[in-house]
Amino acid sequence: MVNPKRRAVTVAVAGTAAGAVGLALLALPAGAGEAPELPPVSAQDLVGSVLRTDAPALSGTVELDNRLGLPAVPGMPALEADSARVFYDGSGRGRLAIQRDTSEYTVVHGKDVLWTYDSAENTVTRTPLTHDRAAPPVDGELTDPATLANRLLDEVRQSSTVAVDGTATVADRAAYELVLTPKPEERTLLREVRIAVDSETRLPLRVSAFTNGTSEPALRLGFTDISFGAQPAQLFSFTPPPGAEVERERQNGPRGPRQHGQVAPEVVGSGWDTVLLTRMPADVDTGRDTGHDAQAGGDLRGMLEQVGQRVRGPYGSGYLIETTVATALITDDGRVAVGAVPEQVLTQALGRR
User: Fold this and answer.
1) Where are the domains of the chain?
2) What confidence tens digit (pLDDT) does each residue in 255-313 have?
3) For 258-350, which CATH class?
4) Among its keywords, does the record have Lipoprotein (predicted)?
């Protein structure tokens, strides 16, 4: 049998945005009881089964919290959330309901249309999707452990040492603990990532990231409850509420519409060293008086001054935001680099733009 370990089940969320970074963590004790005994499985077989598994129809809850003291990032409602409900029909349609203090942000991924609704602003965005380009929205990825885990496995397993290390109970389900450790040549802030894989469905239930010198996870994203089975069809359709302002976007592929003037992100590097490069929207000023919208620029500069450190380098000048698991560098001319890497790696990546 796999050697079980006593572990606490914790829940968390992490999010990154072009131009700023939000990272959250919350460690809460799990219910009493030992980790389950499960039949042995090799790391290779477990990874293979996870990547081959198609997510079944399900519903579940993910609790979200932000305890790093970073301000809310405009356009990233997941960072402001208290909890979220996730629904999936097993064939590509999904619904995400992100609970905030007094409002809800809803994402509905239907057959041909992606809807988003912000009840606080009473605003709706409608984006047409084509069958060859339709994909879950970014916000869904931030609050869905299964999607996040599959992306991690696909992107970093070749640059990792992979092992099965004990078992855990997550959302009242027995799970294997799959551990990815970066190889020595990787330049990353992370020591390891643990993925709790459901022993029955092979669906990832929880993702935890650990940094060097710590025994507690720096961030964690996981289901607190999950149930499998057919979901009501009406969950995957949406009708704008009366009086809501509806904005219609053009087709822009699986990541949804970009803001005016925003450049498509570029990925530099691979595996644990991966850096995301992009630019802030053209109408947002990050540090200079360029005649851009004063309110937008002032709000962003104020946030950067609050959470960032003023820095200079080959890229010019800008702001550096550091957390235990990620680093972001936002230059005064609007370039953005972010990754789970030290500042030096971001500086080198910015040399490409």
Assistant:
1) 14-236, 258-350
2) 444 444 445 678 898 889 999 998 887 666 555 544 444 444 456 778 888 889 999 99
3) alpha beta
4) yes
